[in-house]
Amino acid sequence: MLQAREDVIHMLKTEKTKPEVLEAHYGSAAPESVLRVLHRDAILAQEKSIGEDVYEKPISELDRLEEKQKETYRRMLEQLLLAEKCHRRTVYELENEKHKHTDYMNKSDDFTNLLEQERER
């Protein structure tokens, strides 16, 4: 409908507009008839869209996007919790290895001291 109005305005503004062109396009060459045709087209366009809710599609898209975001957020939290669990386990294993190493070094020092004492005797 908007395009039709722009076409009429363009045709009326240009000097090349001949009555035959208007008549071929709108069924009449008189500008008054063209306006009546535009009015008729506007009424027909309104009748087509009476049952349509212009917000229905955007709202459904927004709802779909919101659900998708919630699902993505939930999966991200699961991955974050899994990474945290793995990190905790790694820290625990490193602490355990640190204690084992300390024990080994202490035993090694004790053994070295015993060997030195034996050698001195």
UniProtKB/TrEMBL annotation:
Protein name, UniProt field: Cortactin-binding protein-2 N-terminal domain-containing protein
Any one GO cellular component localisation term in the record: actin cytoskeleton
PANTHER family from the UniProt entry: FILAMIN-A-INTERACTING PROTEIN 1, FILAMIN/GPBP-INTERACTING PROTEIN
Matching InterPro entries: Cortactin-Actin_Reg, Cortactin-binding_p2_N
Keywords (A to Z) from UniProt: Coiled coil
Domain Cortactin-binding protein-2 N-terminal: 2-121
Protein's organism: Callipepla squamata
The UniProt record lists the keyword Coiled coil: yes
